[in-house]
Design a protein that fits this description.
With 554 residues, the chain is mainly α. It has a domain at 6-91. Helix content is 85%, strand content 0%. The chain contains 8 helices and no strands. The chain has helices at residues 6-23, 46-56, 58-84, 91-141, 144-482, 488-493, 529-538, 543-550. The longest helix is centred in the middle third of the chain and has 339 residues, at 144-482. It is extended and about 165 Å long. The protein starts with 5 loop residues before the first helix and ends with a helix. Residues 91-138, 187-245, 273-300 form a coiled coil.
């Protein structure tokens, strides 16, 4: 039995009605709603219904209560953090204060570092400027013209130093005249003292020589005693040598006697050997005679054997001759018998040959007839084949003629196309050449403009360099003049124009003119004030003055 509450039933009723209306087809009419049987429905009181609902929704309420408690705790925590955030006597406050102080300190340090970096950058910039200025100065001082000017400056310093040295020398010479007398007196006194010292040294040398002479005499006496001792020793050695000589002579005589004894023994042995050799020769002669006898007997026996062998060979030859004669007789009888048999065979063979020749002639005649017939047939066939080939060749010739005409036409068209293409190519090539010439002309004009611009810039740089050099040289010359130096070399080195030549200035340059020969030396400069005056006299720029000079006064 279903047990539902009244409110639930009413909700279900409404929902069922809505569902039925929603799913009902449009073409159907609304049907009657089937209501539940009230006798089978149990009605619950409200308290019981609420209890059931609480039991069913217990988990959801517990979760909601937990979420609510968590939210409250978070809100309290945030509020406490907001309250404690500005307290300075807490650990978090102290940490926050330290962090803020550290941040402020880092910002100050960062600002200080930035300021130091800016100062360092400015310092490095200044150093770079100084280095660039120094490099430019060194590069400027490495120029040949500046080096020449510095050489002239050094020459002026050397000349000044030379003048100072000459002046010092003159002062020394004037001062030395008063000092010479004192010096001569001192030198004379020193010479006298030196002579006295020399006399003292001479006396000492004489005393030393006397002592040396006495020492030499003593050495001579000692040497004499030594010579006497050596003489006595030599006498003793002579006696000993005499004794040794006598002993040597005795040994020599004994050696001679021994040699004579050896010779006698050798002679005796030789005589014995000679007697023994004669005996040996007699024995050898007997042996040779016995050997000769044996050889003679052997030769006799050998000759007998040769004679017996020759007799036996002659007997064997005679037997062979007799056998040959017997065989010859037998062969002659056999040949006679064979000749008669051959004649019969020849007759039979001739008969057979004639029959065979007749048969062959008949066969050859038949073959010849057959061959002639086949030749006639072949000739007719070949004639027909030749006519057919001629007709085919004519047809092929016509076709080839048509093909050649077509090929000539195609070739002519190709040649026309090729000619047109060559003409177009020539026109395009001409246009390309014209365009290339225009580009080359434009490039040449551009190069010319660039060259003119380069020359102008070079002229400006030369003028600027000349101005800088003149300023520098004027300053140095002014300083040298104030220091009372010889400024003539500086004036000569500071003259206008770059280059060490002697010619006139062209475009800020002073070139050198060389002699046109094998030496190739530089030509001298003969321009002087007189030359300039004559040049101004004869090459005036004012036409009126020229007329007056020539006498045209009208």
């Amino acid at each position: 039995m279903a047990t539902v509450s009244a409110p639930q039933y009413s909700r279900r009723k409404n929902s069922i009605a809505r569902l039925a209306i929603a799913i009902r087809p449009k073409e159907e009419a609304p049907a009657a709603v089937h209501l539940p049987d009230l006798r089978q429905v149990t009605v619950l009181p409200k308290a019981e219904w609420l209890r059931i609902q609480d039991n069913l929704n217990h988990d959801n309420k517990h979760n909601e209560s937990l979420l609510e408690a968590s939210k409250q705790r978070n809100a309290l925590h945030l509020r406490s953090k907001e309250v404690v955030k500005f307290w300075s006597n807490t650990i978090a406050g102290q940490r926050q204060k330290k962090l803020e102080a550290k941040k402020i300190r880092e910002e100050i340090e960062e600002e200080e570092k930035k300021r130091i970096d800016l100062e360092e950058a400015e310092y490095q910039k200044q150093k770079r400027k100084e280095a660039i200025s120094k490099a430019k100065s060194e590069q400027y001082f490495q120029m040949d013209r500046v080096k020449g000017f510095h050489s002239a400056l050094l020459l002026s310093e050397v000349l000044k130093e030379r003048e100072a040295q000459l002046e010092l020398k003159q002062k020394k010479q004037s001062a030395s005249k008063d000092v010479d007398r004192d010096v001569m007196a001192q030198l004379k006194q020193k010479d006298e003292e030196a002579m006295e010292q020399e006399r003292q040294r001479e006396i000492l040398r004489e005393q030393e020589n006397e002592a040396i002479a006495e020492d030499l005499k003593q050495q001579m006496r000692e040497h004499k005693l030594i010579q006497e001792k050596e003489k006595m020793e030599n006498m003793k050695e002579a006696v000993e040598l005499q004794r040794l000589k006598e002993l040597h002579d005795w040994e020599k005589s004994m050696h001679k006697q021994n040699k004579q004894e050896e010779k006698r023994s050798v002679m005796k042995a030789h005589l014995e050997h000679m007697s023994n050799r004669n005996v040996i020769r007699a024995i050898e002669a007997q042996k040779e005679e016995a050997e000769e006898e044996r050889r003679r007997l052997f030769m006799t026996a050998k000759q007998k054997m040769i004679k017996m062998r020759k007799e036996k060979e002659a007997e064997m030859f005679r037997d062979v001759q007799r056998h040959k004669e017997t065989m010859t007789e037998r062969l002659a009888a056999q040949l006679q018998e064979k000749t008669s048999n051959d004649e019969e065979l020849i007759t039979k063979a001739v008969t057979l040959r004639e029959a065979r020749l007749e048969r062959e002639q008949r066969e050859n005649a038949a073959k010849k007839k057959t061959m002639l017939d086949s030749i006639a047939v072949h000739r007719e066939t070949m004639h027909q084949e030749q006519e057919r080939k001629l007709s085919e060749e004519k047809q092929m010739a016509l076709e080839m003629l048509q093909a050649k005409k077509e090929a000539d036409r195609i070739f002519l068209e190709k040649q026309q196309l090729k000619t047109q293409k060559m003409k177009d190519n020539w026109v395009s090539l001409q246009d390309f050449h014209i365009h290339q010439m225009a580009e080359r002309r434009a490039k040449e004009q551009l190069v010319k403009k660039e060259q003119l611009y380069f020359e102008a810039k070079n002229t400006e740089l030369v003028a600027e360099e000349e101005e800088q050099f003149q300023k520098y040289s004027e300053g140095v010359i002014r300083t040298a003049a104030e220091a009372k130096r010889n400024i003539l070399p500086l004036r000569k080195a500071a003259k206008e124009g770059i280059g060490g030549g002697l010619g006139p200035i062209f475009g800020g340059l002073r070139p050198s003119y060389l002699v046109h020969d094998s030496t190739g030396v530089e030509m001298p400069k003969y321009v002087s004030s007189t030359t300039q005056d004559i040049k101004e006299l004869y090459e005036t720029n004012d036409i009126q003055q020229a007329k007056k000079r020539l006498g045209f006064t009208w």
